[in-house]
Amino acid sequence: MTRIFASDYRDRSRKHPDPYPVHLLKRVDSPTTWLDESAIRRVDERDGGFQRAKRGEYGPFIQKEYRRFMEKYPLSNVLLAMSKRLAAQDAVDGIPFPQPAPCTDDSTAMSRHIKETAYFLRADLVGICKLPPYAVFTHSRWDGKAIELNHKYAVAILVDQD
Questions:
Q1: What percentage of residues in the chain have a pLDDT greater than 70?
Q2: Taking a C-beta distance cutoff of 8 angstroms, is the pair 69, 75 a contact?
Q3: Is the per-residue pLDDT at 10 higher than 60?
Q4: What pLDDT, on a 0 to 100 scale, did the predictor assign at position 136?
Q5: Which of 135, 147, 156, 142 has its CA nearest to residue 46?
Q6: Among the listed residues 3, 45, 6, 2, the one whose alpha carbon sits nearest the alpha carbon of residue 123
Q7: Could you tell me the end-to-end alpha-carbon distance of the chain, in angstroms, rounded to an integer?
Q8: Average pLDDT for residues 135-149, to the nearest whole number?
Q9: What's the pLDDT at 62?
C-alpha cells in the first residue's frame, strides 16, 4: 500500500491528520455567539501589532525581537515563506488554469493533503472554513496596496507562539 500522508507514519490507526481530536468538535454553519456582521469593519494590516513593532512603536527592544520572530523552529521560516507565496496576489487571483489539477475532485482528500502539508511544516492546527468579507484586510502590509478578495473559503494555519 502506498503511503501518502505523514499521519500514516505517526499512527496507523488514525483516520484524521490533526494532532488534536478536532474531528469530534460539533460543526455548525454559523457562530454560536451572536455577531452583527454588518457592524464588523475590515482593518488595515499595517495597523496591526506586528507591523507597529516592526516600525518601533513599542520601543527598540521589541523592534529588534520582531526581526527574529520566525527563527524559533527550523521549519518555521519555510511555513512563513509558504504562507507568503500562497497569499501572493498572483497566487490567489488571476486567470484559472484551463484544466483542473489531477486528483482534485475529492474535496475531503484535498483538505487532508493541505492539512498534512501544514502539519509537516510545524503548524499546530489547520482548518478550512468559509471566509467572511470582514476577515480580509483592507491593505497589504508589504506594499500598502488595497486588497479586494472575494474567495469563498480560507485555510487557517495556527502556530503556537511559545
A1: 81
A2: no
A3: no
A4: 92
A5: 142
A6: 6
A7: 38
A8: 89
A9: 93
Residue 11: the pLDDT is 52
Measured distance CA(44)–CA(139) in Å, rounded: 5
Count CB neighbours of 123 within 10 A: 22
User: What sections of the chain are H helices per DSSP?
Assistant: 6-10, 49-55, 60-66, 76-87, 89-92, 107-120
What is residue 112's predicted lDDT score, i.e. its pLDDT? Answer: 86
Query: What are the boundaries of each domain within the chain?
Result: 6-94+103-158
pLDDT at residue 25 in the model = 83
Distances (CA, A) of 3 to 7, 100, 126, 149: 9, 24, 21, 36
Contact 114, 160 (CB under 8 A): no
Q: How many CA atoms lie within 13 A of 42 on its CB side?
A: 16
CA 26 vs. chain centroid, Å, equals 21
The rounded Cα 146 to chain-centroid distance in angstroms is 20
Is residue 13 classed as helix, strand or coil in its secondary structure? coil
Work out the burial of residue 95: count CB atoms within 10 Å of its CB; fewer than 13 is exposed, 13-18 middle, 19 or more buried. exposed
Amino acid at 24: L
Question: What are the cell numbers at 6?
Answer: 505523514
Would you list the DSSP string of 53-86? HHHTTT-HHHHHHHTTGGGSSTTHHHHHHHHHHH
